[in-house]
Specification:
The protein is an alpha+beta fold. The protein is built from 4 helices and 8 strands. The protein has one domain.
């Protein structure tokens, strides 16, 4: 019994298709197919309150996100970067977790604030499955009573080799990193919300 070359070609084609389909199916997870969107906007929104006084500025920042994107967003992370070259900025993350089709989703907005002009200059908004868009759901509260400009003044007064200081706020702590002019990390400390 002999096989024609047409049947052999079909079998080769089917075999190759099965291999390709199995590679695609095994290499992708549910997260790869889940809803996700990312939008970036250049804006110019002047803040009335000083961005270094996050407690005073909190309602204003929430109002911006609520008006542009979604109601009930919360500040979950803040990072301030002070630089000797005058390029100082803050990045404020706001998020909201919600459920859609029995799955967890996160809306995350990252606002960049130029600290020299005290204005929001850029907003990046991500929306999707919580496995793809990750954010802590804990709101910044007590920890925002530590003022980043005061931390900057104190740390640079005690160490004049710091050319850049990064102050990162989490719900339970403030991380402080100082860098010299070569970018070497020369200061690394953490303040817990109880002040220690």
């Amino acid at each position: 019994m002999s096989y024609s070359s047409g049947n052999t070609d079909i079998r080769k084609y089917l075999f190759i298709m099965i291999i390709i389909i199995s590679v695609i199916c095994n290499g992708c997870s549910d997260d790869d197919w889940s809803d996700y969107s990312k939008k970036e906007e250049k804006v110019s929104i002047q803040l009335e309150n000083d961005i270094c006084r996050l407690q005073e500025c909190k309602k204003e920042l929430e109002s911006i996100c609520n008006r542009l994107y979604q109601e009930d967003m919360k500040i979950v992370h803040a990072e301030y970067v002070f630089s000797e070259d005058g390029n100082s900025y803050a990045e404020i993350s706001m998020s909201q977790n919600y459920e859609k089709n029995h799955m967890g989703y996160t809306l995350l907005c990252l606002m960049t604030v130029d600290m020299n002009s005290n204005s929001v200059t850029n907003i990046i908004c991500e929306n999707g499955n919580s496995k793809r868009v990750s954010s802590t759901s804990r709101e910044l509260d007590e920890v925002i009573n530590y003022y980043p400009d005061e931390i900057y003044e104190k740390e640079t007064a005690s160490n004049n080799t710091i050319s850049k200081l990064q102050v990162s706020y989490y719900y339970d702590r403030v991380n402080i990193n100082g860098f010299d002019e070569d970018g070497k990390n020369i200061l690394k400390t953490t303040k817990n919300i109880d002040g220690q």
